[in-house]
Every structure is written in C-alpha cells, then in structure tokens.
Amino acid sequence: MRPPPIPSPASFPSPSAPPAPPARPPLITPLRAAVAFALCSALLTALVVAQWDPLLSFDRAAAVGLHRRAVADPALTRAVRVLSDWMWDPLTMRAVTAVAVILLFLRGERLFALWVTVTSACGTACLQILKAAVDRDRPRWHDPVGSAHFSSFPSGHALTAAVTCGLLLWLLRRRTTARWVWCTAVAAAALSVVGVGLTRLWLGVHWSSDVLAGWSLGGCVVALSLTAYDRRVHTPGLVQDTVAR
What we know:
The protein is mostly helical.
C-alpha cells in the first residue's frame, strides 16, 4: 500500500496578510488651520479693543524703532515704498486674482473660478467690517515717510496678500505635482506675505498687531473657503467641478 503523497508547500493555504494600519489624518487640516487663524485674529482684536497695555507698548516700541531707521535710510525707504505701493499693493494683488479667475473660466472650471472670486470678495468684506468696527488710529509722526488713509486695524495690505497668495497656492496645488514648482511657489508666496507686512511697518503706517491681524484674518478666510469647497465637492449627490483637458 502506497503512503499518501506529501502535499507541496504551494498547496497549503497562505495565511491572510495582516490588515494595513489605518492612514493617519494629517496634523494640519484646512479646518484646523481656520480655527487657529480665527482664534489668533479674535484674540488680537480683543486685545486691541481692550487697549491691553503690553500689546500697545510693544506696538509703540516697534514702530518707533523702525521709523528711526526709515528716516535715517531714505534710499531704502524709497525702495520699500515702491514694493508696498506698487508690487504688493492690494489693487495689484486683486488684479492677479482676476487674471487667475479669467484663466479658470477659459479652462471651463467655472465653479472654482466663482469660488475664488467669492473668497477674495469675502476677505475684502471682512477687512472693511473690522476696520469700521475697531476704528483704530494709525501711527502719527512729525516726519512721516509714508501715508495711508482710513483706520489702521487690520492691515489691508497684509490681509489681501495672504488671501491672494493662499488662493494662488491652492490653485497651483490642484494643477501640478512637480516638487520644485511647488517649493518655489511657496517660497515666493511666503516672501510676498511677510514682505508686504514688513513694508507697512517700515513706512510707519501700521502697528505690528495690525499686520498680525491681517495675516491671521486672511489665512482664516482662505482656510475656511478651502474647507467648504472640499466638503462641497466630496458630498454625495453633488456634481463635482469639471476640469477641461
């Protein structure tokens, strides 16, 4: 009688692979960023309205120090004025946004173009409402090196730059995966947002807390818009924005 054949290893059932661990959610999400920016903006607004002395003292000390340097270096101040009044002016930033919106319409991305337009308009509306509500005086100098009108808080230049650069980065992120392009764009956006705030401080037309509030409020507007758009697109039953190829 023959012994039963020994089964080959291939005939044994393979053990089931262990389930893959669930993907960790990103540490920074648009919603979390919006909450963080909103809290920062609200805190700065409350401290300015309450005239919290440590913040006001810091604002005055920073403004006086920068103004002395601006007066002592007129050549640099002229260059800063060009950057602030032309390159990073809110009208220039809004014109860049308008060009992006037109390109989106031409490519058939009408929903996203409308979303970018509304986001930019909401940023401007929030700026004007907060300026009228706080009605903070600008720094005053016997020897001014720059001029600005309307109330000081928050900085319109800082907010508009944050909203515009945030929207452009969002648009670029949807279009390219090249790492060097993305890194270059992020660096250019960071330089613009930080640079415009520093120019307003150098020209003595804003307090430091004005600029910080403008950055915070602008970041909050963009992060909320991104969150709302992402939820709208990924909600079942809603038609996603079509992309022309």
